[in-house]
Write a structure and sequence with these properties.
Radius of gyration of chain A: 32 Å
Distance between the termini of chain B: 30 Å
Helix content of chain B: 25-40%
Distance between the termini of chain A: 27 Å
Shape of chain A: elongated
Strand order of the largest sheet of chain A: 2-3-10-5-7-6
Oligomer: heterodimer
Largest sheet of chain A: 6 strands, mixed, barrel
Structural class of chain A: alpha+beta
Order of helices and strands of chain A: HHEHHEEHEHEHEEEEEHEHEHHHHH
Number of helices of chain A: 14
Number of domains of chain A: 2
Chain lengths: 407, 218
């Protein structure tokens, strides 16, 4: 039997029952669409978060009084809160004494009201950073610049704003050179960051960067700072961490048998932490639409069983005319496959559109992932084969004499 | 457990280009005999040679191949595919022989021409009369040039006149050299054959030649 004949045969059979075929295909479309949409969003989210974490570089680590472990329970967090804050001078000490440390940066954060003319924005994250911050991350500037070390040393009243600030307070204006009021202090805008978009409802462009010295002077110096250190290479990471730790332990007067009262966290550890928090959710998110697919598969099987029973006589006739088991089996299997592959193709397309729509509505990132498309093709073909095989075999095994007698 | 023998001790030889009728009342075992001859079934015991080849111990696939190439069936209930037109119904055995579309069309058209139904090629079975349907079935039986055409009560669902037309068609096919076996319980239909084999209770009761002589096998 020729392949073209097989396809034509299956196509004709499906066309003869349009509504039935449509409903079966619909089941597969729904299953595949939801799987693709969820996978696109999950993969998109992973990529975005991974790239955010990696933007600080794989040879960079952070030192803070809070470590990943301290975010895992309320008691741990409360205990960690009691620890001594790092000061900017701790960062300066590391910069001075740590030979391996290639770059040492620091960040302190506060939340303040912004004002330009009569326009206001409340509770905006103001990050005081060291001027080398830009060398340590993949932070990109659209216009202007970040403050210099010279400005930092002199507590300059200068700011670089995120794109959200521009949109809300300076729509249609050139921002560089304008005035910005943070709390009660006036700043000159010297730069604008490249837009980074948003995620899970949080706008990644709602921030202002000012010199860390200025922030500590204007908004209180007794606040926790986080220290960023860049090792010369990934290989030298462990050794660099040790050097920095030794300096900090002596500054915090820790005995040799005492544990660190601060935490060192690498990008890799942040990624692991993210994975451990979201892993289960992701598995569940993908598993639920898979149930829809199994249901669709059962629908395929059910329809194919009906189809085989309905055509028992036809099977008998075909066998009496020389059709082999294989021919009958392929005939029904290709019917099941045609429905599932067709449904799968539509499902992949709709799934991508749905992911796009959901991403737009819910501030989620999404990517057209190869994994999702390959998965969609594989899953829909699999559904066709798995759920079409039994009915097809049942049809193929029929005895021609009995089958022809069937009424 | 008791074995039930639908046929026992049947010894039968049919020559090329012969026209044989197998007669017997219902329950006589003639359907079983026909299923064996048609390779739809294999015997539990005994031997069957078709064209000198032993069919008795062939597997399902080999039997399917024999049915496809060597045997053309004509059934009482026509057994046409209702959704396919006459041409496509006649083409069916050729599809399973793997013959390409062009050649298939040609062969099917020739077969339809032989039963004088070429102008009905595009019609589906429900647009045809009973006699026409049976002629499509005959064309389907002919199309692969089988060694043997096997007809099971071919006139059972037809009125007398149409039945006679079909029998005349069979006569013509036999005159052209086709080997024919007709299974029937109707003596009038059996009369068209050169040789009539009577079966009763799974055994051959008697054979009769059309020349008139009756040969008792017991």
């Amino acid at each position: 039997m020729r392949f073209g004949d097989l396809l034509r045969l299956s196509f004709e059979a499906l066309r003869a029952h349009k509504l039935r075929t449509f409903l079966t295909v619909l089941g597969i479309v729904i299953g595949v669409t939801s799987v693709i949409a969820i996978i696109s969003i999950v993969v998109g989210m992973n990529e975005k978060i991974t790239s955010l974490i990696n933007s600080m570089g794989t040879s960079t680590f952070t030192i803070s009084k809070y470590g990943i472990e301290d975010y895992k329970s309320q008691e741990a967090y409360r205990e960690a809160r009691k620890r001594k804050n790092f000061k900017f001078r701790d960062a300066l000490a590391i910069e001075r004494d740590c030979e391996l440390c290639e770059e040492v940066g620091a960040e302190a954060v506060t939340f303040r009201q912004l004002k330009y003319g009569s326009d206001k924005m409340n509770n905006v994250a103001i990050a005081g950073i060291t001027s080398n911050f830009i060398n340590m991350t993949e932070f990109e500037v659209a216009e202007g610049r970040v403050h210099s070390e010279f400005e930092q040393d002199r507590y300059a009243q200068v700011a670089l704003i995120g794109d959200k600030i521009r949109r809300e307070l300076y729509e249609g204006l050139d921002v560089v050179g304008r005035e910005l009021k943070i709390g009660i202090h006036k700043y000159e805008i010297i730069g604008l960051a490249k837009p980074r978009g948003s995620m899970l409802g949080e706008d990644l462009d709602e921030f202002v960067l000012i010199p860390i010295t200025t922030l500590l002077k204007n908004y209180g110096s007794n606040r926790e700072i986080e220290i960023f250190i860049k090792a010369p290479s990934e290989e030298a990471l462990a050794e660099t961490i040790d050097q920095a730790r030794v300096i900090l332990r002596s500054r915090r007067h820790l005995d040799f048998q005492e544990e660190d009262d601060f935490a060192v966290t690498t990008a890799e550890e942040w990624l692991e932490f993210y994975g451990s928090v979201t892993g289960t959710i992701q598995v569940v998110a993908v598993a639920i639409p898979l149930i829809a697919l199994v249901v669709a598969g059962i629908v395929v099987m059910n329809i194919m069983m009906v189809s085989v029973t309905e055509r028992t006589r036809e099977i008998g006739i075909r066998k009496s005319l020389g059709a082999r088991k294989r021919h009958i089996m392929l005939q029904f299997l290709s019917e099941a496959l045609m429905m599932s592959v067709f449904g799968g193709a539509i499902g992949i397309g709709l799934g991508i559109l749905l992911a796009k729509a959901l991403a737009g509505a819910g501030d989620l990132p999404f990517v057209i992932s190869k994994l999702a498309i390959l998965g969609g093709i594989f899953i829909s073909t699999g559904v066709g084969v798995v759920f079409g095989l039994y009915p097809a075999m049942k049809g193929a095994r029929l005895d021609p004499v009995d089958a022809m007698r069937f009424e | 457990m008791q074995e039930l023998h639908a046929l026992k001790g049947v010894n039968l030889q049919i020559e090329k280009a012969e026209y044989v009728a197998i007669m017997g009342p219902s329950g006589s075992g003639k359907s079983t005999l026909m299923n064996l001859i048609g390779c739809l079934d294999s015997p539990t015991r005994g031997e069957y040679y078709l064209n000198g080849e032993s069919v008795s111990d062939m597997n399902d696939n080999e039997l399917a191949k024999i049915r496809n190439k060597e045997i053309g069936f004509v059934f009482q209930t026509f057994n046409l595919l209702p959704r396919a037109n006459s041409l496509h119904n006649v083409e069916l055995p050729l599809i399973y022989s793997g013959i390409d579309t062009g050649t298939r069309r040609e062969m099917a058209s020739t077969a339809l021409e032989q039963v004088e139904l070429l102008e009905w090629a595009g019609h589906k079975p429900n647009e045809l009369s009973g006699g026409q349907r049976q002629r499509v079935a005959v064309a389907r039986a002919l199309v692969n040039n089988p060694s043997l055409i096997l007809a099971d009560e071919p006139t059972g669902n037809l009125d007398t006149k149409t039945g006679l037309d079909i029998m005349k068609l069979f006569r013509r096919l036999n005159d052209r050299g086709n080997t024919l076996i007709v299974v029937t319980h109707d003596p009038e239909i059996a009369q068209f054959a050169d040789r009539i084999i009577h079966i009763r209770d799974g055994e051959i009761e008697k054979e009769e030649r059309r020349s008139g002589q009756v040969q008792d096998v017991h």
